[in-house]
Amino acid sequence: xxxxxxxxxxxxxxxxxxxxxxxxxxxxxxxxxxxxxxxxxxxxxxxxxxxxxxxxxxxxxxxxxxxxxxxxxxxxxxxxxxxxxxxxxxxxxxxxxxxxxxxxxxxxxxxxxxxxxxxxxxxxxxxxxxxxxxxxxxxxxxxxxxxxxxxxxxxxxxxxxxxxxxxxxxxxxxxxxxxxxxxxxxxxxxxxxxxxxxxxxxxxxxxxxxxxxxxxxxxxxxxxxxxxxxxxxxxxxxxxxxxxxxxxxxxxxxxxxxxxxxxxxxxxxxxxxxxxxxxxxxxxxxxxxxxxxxxxxxxxxxxxxxxxxxxxxxxxxxxxxxxxxxxxxxxxxxxxxxxxxxxxxxxxxxxxxxxxxxxxxxxxxxxxxxxxxxxxxxxxxxxxxxxxxxxxxxxxxxxxxxxxxxxxxxxxxxxxxxxxxxxxxxxxxxxxxxxxxxxxxxxxxxxxxxxxxxxxxxxxxxxxxxxxxxxxxxxxxxxxxxxxxxxxxxxxxxxxxxxxxxxxxxxxxxxxxxxxxxx
RNA sequence: CGGGGAGUGGCGCAGCCCGGUAGCGCACAGCGUUUGGGACGCUGGGGUCGCAGGUUCGAAUCCUGUCUCCCCGACCA
Length: 519
What we know:
Blueprint: H1 2-13, H2 46-49, H3 53-63, E1 67-69, E2 76-78, H4 80-99, E3 103-104, E4 110-112, H5 113-117, H6 120-126, E5 131-136, E6 139-147, H7 152-162, E7 171-180, E8 194-204, H8 207-227, E9 234-237, E10 249-256, E11 262-272, H9 274-278, E12 283-284, E13 290-291, E14 294-301, H10 303-312, E15 329-333, H11 338-357, E16 362-364, H12 372-381, E17 386-390, H13 392-397, E18 399-404, E19 410-414, H14 418-443, E20 445-447, H15 451-460, E21 464-469, H16 473-478, E22 485-488, H17 493-496, E23 511-516
The chain binds one RNA strand through helix 3, strand 11, helix 12 and helix 13.
């Protein structure tokens, strides 16, 4: 289905309307999804219902029980299954950050309004999306507090006290927490008023050191997203217009969703001395001079969960890469008579013990209130990479029937060496998913040299388009006519190559630029 | 924040125009038969109709306000 989204969208846009609308909140129990069948009509094809990509996304997130809506606009509840994905993301990223010398800490949720104003571009950038606390303890506050949209300001106020000498540098601190931005338009995981993330804030002696840090983090992110989430990314820099409010350089990672639109997967900023200067953080350098430290900040958020859904999902629901899936394997026992049940359950317990010992993340669906067929669909909806069907026939043959979620192929696997077989099957699922996503991104990435060509391309086949750009913001703004924007510039300007006349205005091109419609 | 659509048992909807005290399917509970791709029968429980005002003898239904969700736009590291 994913490949059809592009065309489906166009069809919908030019007249076709979809009928089933509205949120489809999830089932009643942790494992009792009943969505994707509006009206309860099981004969109705899911494919026919999911004509609208946006609607598909919401339905999938709700019915896989990743999250649910709350009475507060733009604020979702992340349900256990969704949070389990986040915990796996955290574990991986946290391990990488620790391995590169970073330490975790925690800073206040509330930030004095005056702090936000210290850095001119910073406050200008964030002013429209601040949530402001005006009262506390029944009293009007002498100074308003903002709920952190990001923590640079409060952290640099601390760094002023913590950094006195070059011997105190570098400071390599990360924080796992939440942030609040008053968004006008919200979508679960992709954009919301409150989201969970990690934000790293480092301080260094030199620009070069800070820049190396920002790039190191970007590399860590890229590796994680590509190797663990199986999502290809394009690393690059943001244009002046798109960069972080208060940064000198913003490095970004852009990924292509199945509808051809770009999603910013995370950013890493070289903040120069902007915040050091604004908060008067000074250190005595080796040369005896007082200097402002050079700093960075970087973040990835729960938006990555949205990316997993949008990149890998299909008409049956989620498909999770084995390396991040809360459950890598789910076992569905099958029997008809009580005698069969006894032997099957004994066999399942044996398999369970072996796979548990092999370190697989495993779930046994022992519900006897629903049929095996129901369970198959249920776990496919949740994207479990591999399902083991174990019934009397399997017991008799001393095997299990394995069904992989990504290709929906089934195969029998003998009990001998089962764990090893599953490990390699999971690896194959992981690499197949990565290759599939890579192929989609590659086949929807093109180079164009003329504005008309770009416009026609974006209209006919949404995706990534490399253009030549003169660097003039006016040309960048014209892309808005196409509902597109510059998502990234090549990492290194020098290596970018001028590639020819600016795709927009025809003047000398200074750099290549990646253009796409964005989430 | 502008334009459009929608909120009625857990979910999907009907009822609203022409006010008279709420209905259907699925889900849920019990029992029985079932179980290798979303099982079936019987019985049963569950709803201050998003919220707040107003009109009326009487409001799911008419009026006003407000909140949330969806779509389009503007905005958005």
